[in-house]
Amino acid sequence: MLFLFYGGVIMAAQENALDSKTANFFTYFALHSRITLTHSKSKSKMDQTLLLIFQLAILIMSVVVHEVSHGLMANRLGDPTAKQMGRLTFNPLSHLDFMGSFLVPLITSLGGGFIFGWAKPVPYNPYNLKNQKWGPALVAGVGPFSNFVVALVFGLTLRFGQTYLPDPALLAMSLIIYINILLGIFNLVPIPPLDGFKILAAFLPYRYERYLLALERWGMILVLAFVFFIFPLISPIVPILFRVITGLFMGY
Q1: Which member of 12, 66, 148, 198 lies 3.0 to 4.6 Å from 26 by CB, making a disulfide possible if both were Cys?
Q2: Residue 251 domain-assigned (yes or no)
Q3: Whole domain around residue 53: which residue ranges?
């Protein structure tokens, strides 16, 4: 039985934009940037570095799945912008920015505190959607939903197949499950520029639109404040869901 202790949290926030050149910021934090297995009392610096790279690779692909899901839903609802721009692809090179997705995260990771970066958005035009009221909410909601689906598929595989899987596969699948649960929960938080904010906006009367626009100007500041002051209070939900899905324990 594998007990996985993940010494940090990784988060991502995304924002759909009309302009494909608009930066799609995502913030992901690794508070300790390490994973410790109960059978390993120590790890070399090389092992930790390789493990961090592996975590980032999983994070990148999870973000790609999340973003492509936005584009697919928008296309289904009547907006072909992402399809026309060739962004409905799972090739990470189509979604990543060299500076924001590689160089800046690498530099910030060396500080040992948090990792910061951004990726190019999958663009969509909400005015092309068939349903102007609920269309943006559906486009936003499918992102976190895709992360939960990934976590559920790998989680059930891990739950019923762990006896037959080697330790490296168990570790990889555990990381995929954990990161996708975290991304799904984090992005459902109703603050800009997270998906939860767009979902909430669909339920509010039109007269509140100007207040929502005002909040969006403070988006990244609100996200950072949430990460450092509020998210630690709700983060225990992640290992709880991990255990419910996989039957394994995960702690900090």
Answers
A1: 12
A2: no
A3: 4-246
